[in-house]
Design brief:
By secondary structure, the protein is mainly α. It is built from six helices and no strands.
């Protein structure tokens, strides 16, 4: 979970900072910008963390052996052996269908900007 969330926030923050210079059209359309950046961040973070998920799943379903189960080295060898590095990304396209629509940045930005607007409104109303 930590690699996924870390890569997701890093990618989203970087894209949000620079996407206005790359695509000036998105500077004024904040919702579209946030949805696009969130979808790309979800895809990048899913790609970065997916090999760890594959290894974890292989270790979980490997069964209990008298030696204590499947080690991470055994899991990596079992995945890499027959399919090479592509074995770590089998099923990733289904993961994209699951993760990209679950962007959480638009609601997060909406509520944070709404709370900031409310605070400014209250401070102006209280000082007049």
């Amino acid at each position: 979970m930590i690699p996924y969330a870390g890569v997701s926030f890093l990618t989203y923050g970087t894209l949000k900072r620079y996407v206005g210079t790359w695509f000036p059209y998105l500077e004024e359309r904040k919702t579209v910008r946030d949805l696009g950046c969130g979808a790309i961040a979800g895809a990048v973070s899913q790609t970065a963390s997916y090999p760890f998920e594959v290894i974890r799943r292989r270790m979980q379903v490997g069964g209990v052996a008298p030696s204590g189960g499947v080690s991470w080295r055994d899991a990596i060898n079992a995945i890499y052996g027959p399919k090479g590095w592509r074995g770590f990304f089998v099923g990733l396209s289904i993961g994209y269908l699951k993760v990209i629509p679950m962007t959480r940045y638009v609601p997060m930005n909406f509520f944070s900007s709404s709370l900031a607007d409310e605070a400014v409104y209250r401070s102006q109303r209280g000082s007049s």
